[in-house]
Design goal:
- By secondary structure, this protein is of the alpha+beta class.
- Among the domains are: 40-171, no CATH class; 200-246; 283-325.
- Helices cover 54% and strands 15% of the residues.
- The strands form three sheets. Strands 3-1-2-5-4 form a five-stranded antiparallel sheet, with helices on both faces.
- A hairpin with a 6-residue loop joins strand 6 (200-204) and strand 7.
- Helix 3 (113-122) crosses helix 5 (151-188).
- It is rod-shaped and about 195 Å long.
- The termini are far apart.
Length: 380
C-alpha cells in the first residue's frame, strides 16, 4: 500500500491557506460583477419603463404617481415615493435630484389630483406603511414602506380610489344639475310685483347662478348683502324712498312726479285732456275727437286738428255744453222739484175729471151725438 503525504508548504496543494484566500477573493469579485450587472439591468429596465410613462403625459396633464428610491427608512425598509403633479417630467427630474436612484414606476391620469392624493393618504394601508425620512435636514413624509406591499397591490388600491372618487363626483354633478334645473324653474316663474314698493329684491342670474340684491328705489344692484346694507344707510337712498312715497301719479297718462305743482300743471295740460277724452269716449289714438275721423299717421292727425273745430259737429257741441253747464243740485232743490211735479200731476187729473163730466153732460143732452152723427149742412 502506497501512502501520499501532503506537504502543506507545497503551493499547488489545495489545502494551502493562500489558495483559500485567492478563491474567496475571486468569488467576491465575480459576485460584485454579477451584482453590478443586475443593477445595471434593473436600472435599464426602470429607465425604459419611466421613459415610456413620460411619453404618455403632456405638460398640463394632472396625475398621481409613485416611484422607487434607494433611500431606506430608519428600520432599513425599501421605500416608494408617491405624490401628484401637473408636469410629470419636471417632477421626476426634481425627485432624481432629491432622492437616490429615483425611477418612476406608475402614473394615473386624473381630473382632481389633490382630492385623489388626499384620499390615498386616508387609506388604511397608506397610513400603516407611511414613513418619514430626513435628507439634508429636511423631512419628507410622502413615502411608503413596500417591504410587505407589492406594486400590484399598490396599483389596485390607487385605481379603486380613483374609481370611487369618479362615482362620487358623478353623483355630486347629477345633484348639482338637478338643483340648477330647479333654480331655473323658480327664476323663470312669473314675477308678481307687490302693490307696496319693496326695499330690495334678491334675484339669481340664469347663466352663472350669482345672487344679486336690487334696490327698487335707486336702481342700484349689489352682489353681497353687506354692500347692499351700506347702500341703505346712504342719505341719497333715504331721499329716493321718501320721494317715491310722496309721488303724484296720473293713471290716464302714466305720468309720475314728486312735486304737486307739476302734477297740477299736467292735469291742466292739453295732452292730459286729450288722453282723458280718448279714454272716456273710447276714441282711438289716431282718431279726431271732434269729427271722429281716423288717420294713418300722427302727422296727418295733427294737421287736421289745426282746422277742425268742435263747433262744426253738433253732437260734440251738445256733449261739450252739457259738460260745461253741469250744476250740482242739493237735497232741497230735489224736494222742490218733486213737489212741483206732484202739483202738476194733480192739476192734470182734475182737468181730466172736468173733461169727462163735460162730455157726459153733452151726451145726456143729445148735443154731442147729434153733432157727431148729423153734422150741420153748410149754408148755400
Amino acid at each position: 500500500m502506497n501512502y501520499c503525504i501532503s506537504n502543506p508548504e507545497n503551493p499547488e496543494n489545495p489545502e494551502n491557506p493562500e489558495n483559500h484566500e485567492n478563491l474567496e477573493t475571486d468569488l467576491r469579485e465575480e459576485n460584485e460583477l454579477l451584482r453590478k450587472e443586475v443593477e445595471n439591468a434593473n436600472a435599464m429596465k426602470n429607465k425604459i419603463r419611466q421613459d415610456t410613462l413620460l411619453e404618455q403625459y403632456n405638460k398640463d396633464d394632472q396625475c398621481v404617481y409613485y416611484g422607487i428610491i434607494n433611500n431606506k427608512s430608519n428600520d432599513n425598509e425599501p421605500l416608494v415615493k408617491f405624490g401628484n403633479s401637473k408636469d410629470l417630467r419636471t417632477r421626476v427630474a426634481t425627485h432624481q435630484k432629491t432622492y437616490d436612484g429615483f425611477y418612476l414606476v406608475n402614473a394615473f391620469r386624473v381630473d382632481n389630483k389633490f382630492q385623489i392624493e388626499t384620499e390615498m393618504k386616508k387609506h388604511p394601508l397608506f397610513q400603516m406603511y407611511q414613513r418619514t425620512i430626513e435628507i439634508n435636514g429636511k423631512n419628507y413624509i410622502e413615502l411608503l414602506a413596500v417591504d410587505k406591499l407589492s406594486f400590484d397591490e399598490l396599483n389596485k388600491i390607487i385605481r379603486t380610489i380613483i374609481h370611487t372618487m369618479s362615482m362620487i363626483k358623478r353623483e355630486k354633478y347629477n345633484k348639482l344639475l338637478l338643483e340648477r334645473n330647479e333654480t331655473k324653474e323658480k327664476v323663470s316663474a312669473p314675477f308678481i310685483t307687490p302693490l307696496i314698493p319693496v326695499a330690495y329684491s334678491c334675484r339669481i342670474n340664469n347663466e352663472n347662478l350669482v345672487a344679486t340684491f336690487d334696490c327698487s328705489s335707486c336702481d342700484y344692484r349689489a352682489h353681497t348683502k353687506r354692500n347692499y346694507s351700506n347702500h341703505l344707510a346712504l342719505n341719497n337712498h333715504k331721499k329716493n324712498v321718501e320721494a317715491k312715497q310722496s309721488s303724484y301719479s296720473c293713471e290716464c297718462c302714466n305720468y309720475v312726479t314728486n312735486q304737486k305743482s307739476h302734477y297740477l300743471d299736467h292735469i291742466a295740460s292739453k295732452a292730459h285732456e286729450y288722453k282723458k277724452n280718448v279714454a272716456e269716449k273710447g276714441i282711438k289714438s289716431n282718431q279726431c275727437i271732434c269729427c271722429l275721423r281716423e288717420f294713418n299717421s300722427k302727422t296727418s292727425l295733427w294737421r287736421h286738428k289745426n282746422h277742425c273745430k268742435p263747433e262744426d259737429h253738433p253732437v260734440n257741441i251738445a256733449i261739450n255744453e252739457s259738460k260745461n253747464n253741469k250744476t250740482t243740485a242739493t237735497d232741497h232743490d230735489i224736494d222742490v222739484l218733486i213737489k212741483k211735479d206732484d202739483e202738476l200731476l194733480k192739476l192734470i187729473v182734475i182737468q181730466n175729471q172736468q173733461m169727462v163730466t163735460l162730455v157726459n153732460t153733452l151726451v145726456t143732452r143729445g148735443l154731442f151725438n147729434n153733432n157727431l152723427t148729423n153734422p150741420p149742412t153748410p149754408k148755400s
